[in-house]
């Protein structure tokens, strides 16, 4: 028999989404927890994690280097601006990083980034929840629908969470290269790395046996800083976007998953043009009628209009207030799916 959570879903925690009244104020509209959970169960939902996920459970501005946490984008920009004495645009990470390279060179910037992101920091509840999903399905007697999790973060929080949960992952990360165009690399569960030289033929069985993590803006390698890669300066993004379509560098299996998935954006401001650029081709190839969602507190009118035109509904809710009712909904849906499977299985 399936195992059912004893807790009922507290509908009072289902906070509002991004609907503006005539005066421009946001009014409550519950996130579609059930639809999002169904997407996970059926393997048709791709989470995207931005730097705002690192603010889970704390306020912006509390981060300090060495305090066993990772910064969000504005905190990182502020730290670099202070370290390299740049007073303008202190919250603009691309502009600050570009200044550092022009003033001091790329090596000092990379050294600072390595010191920050090679920290053995503990994952937060968002990372751990995603890592627990395969086991939540196994507990109910269901075969796991292994996820593709996409992130623009450099840190290893996701990998650590999956490791702690006893789950193997295939890690893909973008690596810029001086003598040729950048490409994605594949880090296998045994720790070996190989370039994705032929995306159309690279391991077609991906996502059948384990989760895949896709780091589209680079990766830190804690043991070997020479293998770090960061898309972080204005010039980096120009080079990154100079490709006709960066998504064509992905293994065919991963790109196919994204083109037929709902997207769930966590920790993003959806005005981030760098993310929009990566998604541009994917939007055009996705099937019609595939709704996506973003959890973002206090989106502005431009964000709502930009992403509403792309089929993304922004829900005006704190990430902390989203996660608990969503977890309960997923557990309830898994129990119901297991009950249906049990009822449909003939008795022996």
Question: Can you put this structure into words, describing what you see?
Answer:
The protein has helices at 33-41, 73-83, 93-104, 106-117, 125-139, 157-164, 234-241, 252-259, 273-285, 301-308, 319-344, and strands spanning 19-20, 26-27, 45-49, 148-151, 169-175, 183-187, 193-195, 211-215, 218-219, 229-230, 262-266, 292-295, 312-315. By secondary structure, it is of the alpha/beta class. It has one domain (11-60, 125-341): Rossmann fold (3-Layer(aba) Sandwich), CATH 3.40.50. Strands 7-6-5-8-4-3-11-12-13 form a nine-stranded mixed sheet, sandwiched between helices. Strands 1-2 form a two-stranded antiparallel sheet. Helix 5 (125-139) runs parallel beside helix 6 (157-164) and helix 5 runs parallel beside helix 11 (319-344). The protein is globular, with a radius of gyration of 20 Å. Mean pLDDT is 85; it is low at 5-18.
Describe the structure concisely for a colleague.
The chain has 348 residues and is α/β, with parallel strands linked by helices.
Query: End-to-end distance, in Å?
Result: 15 Å
* CATH architecture descriptor text: 3-Layer(aba) Sandwich
Bulk shape: globular
Range of helix content: 25-40%
Largest sheet: 9 strands, mixed
Percentage beta strand = 5-15%
- Give the H and E element order: EEHEHHHHEHEEEEEEHHEHEHEH
**CATH topology (fold) name:** Rossmann fold
Strand order of the largest sheet: 7-6-5-8-4-3-11-12-13
Which CATH class is shown?
Answer: Alpha Beta
Tally of distinct domains: 1
What count of helical segments does DSSP give?
A: 11
- Give Rg in angstroms: 20 Å
The residue-averaged pLDDT reads: 85
| Helix/strand/pairing category | alpha/beta
């Amino acid at each position: 028999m399936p195992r059912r959570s004893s807790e009922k879903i507290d509908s009072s925690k289902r906070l509002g989404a991004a609907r503006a009244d005539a005066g421009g104020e946001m009014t409550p509209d519950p996130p579609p927890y059930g639809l999002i959970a169904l997407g996970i169960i059926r393997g048709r939902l791709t989470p995207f994690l931005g730097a705002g996920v690192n603010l889970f459970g704390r306020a912006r501005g509390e981060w300090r280097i060495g305090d066993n946490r990772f910064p969000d984008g504005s905190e990182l920009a502020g730290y670099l601006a202070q370290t390299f004495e740049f007073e303008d645009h202190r919250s603009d990470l691309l502009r600050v990083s570009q200044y550092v390279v022009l003033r001091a060179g790329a090596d000092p910037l990379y050294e600072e980034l390595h010191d920050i992101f090679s920290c053995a920091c503990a994952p937060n509840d968002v990372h751990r929840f995603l890592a627990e999903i395969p086991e939540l399905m196994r507990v109910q007697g269901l075969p796991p629908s292994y996820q593709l999790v996409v992130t623009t973060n450099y840190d290893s929080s996701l990998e650590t969470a999956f490791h702690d949960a006893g789950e193997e992952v295939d890690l893909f990360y973008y690596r810029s290269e001086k003598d040729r165009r950048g490409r994605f690399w594949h880090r296998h569960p045994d720790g070996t790395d190989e370039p994705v030289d032929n995306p159309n033929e690279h391991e077609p069985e991906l996502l059948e046996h384990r989760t895949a993590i896709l780091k589209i803006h680079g990766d830190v390698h804690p043991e070997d800083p020479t293998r770090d890669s960061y898309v972080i300066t204005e010039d980096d993004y120009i080079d990154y976007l100079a490709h006709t379509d960066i998504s064509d560098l992905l293994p065919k299996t991963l790109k196919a998953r994204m083109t037929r998935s709902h997207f769930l954006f966590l920790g993003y401001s959806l005005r981030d043009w760098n993310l929009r650029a990566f998604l541009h081709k994917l939007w055009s190839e996705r099937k019609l009628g595939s709704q996506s969602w973003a959890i973002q507190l206090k989106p502005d009118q431009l964000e709502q209009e930009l992403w509403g035109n792309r089929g993304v509904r922004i829900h005006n809710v704190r990430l902390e207030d989203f996660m608990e009712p969503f977890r309960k909904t997923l557990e309830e849906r898994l129990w119901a799916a297991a009950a249906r499977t049990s009822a449909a299985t003939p008795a022996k």
